[in-house]
Amino acid sequence: SQTIHQWPATLVQPVGSPLSLECTVEGTSNPNLYWYRQAAGRGLQLLFYSVGIGQISSEVPQNLSASRPQDRQFILSSKKLLLSDSGFYLCAWSSGLFNQAELFFGSGTQLSVL
Amino acid sequence: GENVEQHPSTLSVQEGDSAVIKCTYSDSASNYFPWYKQELGKRPQLIIDIRSNVGEKKDQRIAVTLNKTAKHFSLHITETQPEDSAVYFCAASGQNFVFGPGTRLSVLP
């Protein structure tokens, strides 16, 4: 069966520090991968999605970036964190893009930028 | 792009009563409408979905209806139980995938 791993679970970082969140999927090949952010009490905002290695689409211009160095690995990065980057970050995968299949979410990373 | 509105933002019902959450979308090209449930501190999980070629779908105590002409769809939960308490997100998908802002459902014992 397919599983998705996301780490770390919680992270406290000072403003201006770098960020690296990692997500891996097991049990499937060529998944579509997504990064979402959820602000406290708010909805799910799509940040990036990827349909293949090295292919990244950005939905929201900001100081975050994403990379997909391997088929089942998706990384969210920042060179300098802002206070507004605080939130709950969720990685997700699907076998089809958007309207074709269910999204399976990771357990999330609670990021606090102080 | 797609815009999804969701109402109400919070909903409290007595155990055993029904709950209805409504969503509207803007992009007539959207053709897939899933509903996700997120319990406190946990990941969202799909509970039911509907495609544009169907007007209604039911799975035990939950059902979803879709009106493509009016561009709205609704989640219906009958015989609510305390474990139904969670945040529910609707979404609309066509060219892109957009979630609604969520509804916090509280089922009171």
Helix-strand topology string of chain A:
EEEEEEEEEEE
> Strand share of the residues of chain A?
over 45%
Largest sheet of chain B: 6 strands, mixed
- Class computed from helices, strands and strand pairing of chain B: mainly beta
Ends of chain B: how far apart?
41 Å
Main interface: chain pair and counts: A-B, 16 and 22 residues
Number of strands of chain A: 11
Identify low-pLDDT runs of chain B. Answer: none
Shape of chain B: globular
What do the pLDDT scores of chain A average to? 91
- Termini gap of chain A: 38 Å
Helical content band of chain B: under 10%
Question: Which strand-content bin applies to the residues of chain B?
Answer: over 45%
Can you tell me about this structure?
The complex is a heterodimer of chains A (114) and B (109). Chain A starts with a strand and ends with a strand. Chain A has strands at residues 3-7, 10-13, 19-26, 32-38, 44-52, 55-58, 64-70, 73-78, 87-94, 104-105, 109-113. Chain A is an all-beta fold. With 109 residues, chain B is an all-beta fold. Helix content of chain B is 0%, strand content 58%. Chain B contains no helices and 11 strands. The radius of gyration of chain B is 13 Å and the shape is globular. In chain B, 35% of the residues are buried. Classes of the chains: A mainly beta (114), B mainly beta (109).
Please provide a brief summary of the model.
Chain A is an all-beta fold. Helices cover 0% and strands 57% of the residues of chain A.
State the main characteristics.
heterodimer, A: 114 residues, mainly beta, seven-stranded mixed beta sheet, 11 strands, 57% strand, globular, B: 109 residues, six-stranded mixed beta sheet, five-stranded antiparallel beta sheet
Task: Please write out the topology.
The complex is a heterodimer of chains A (114) and B (109).
Chain A: E1 3-7, E2 10-13, E3 19-26, E4 32-38, E5 44-52, E6 55-58, E7 64-70, E8 73-78, E9 87-94, E10 104-105, E11 109-113
Parallel strand pairs in A: 2-11
Antiparallel strand pairs in A: 1-3, 3-8, 4-5, 4-9, 5-6, 7-8, 9-10, 9-11
Chain B: E1 4-7, E2 10-14, E3 19-25, E4 32-38, E5 45-51, E6 56-59, E7 62-67, E8 72-77, E9 86-93, E10 97-99, E11 103-108
Parallel strand pairs in B: 2-11
Antiparallel strand pairs in B: 1-3, 3-8, 4-5, 4-9, 6-7, 7-8, 9-10, 9-11
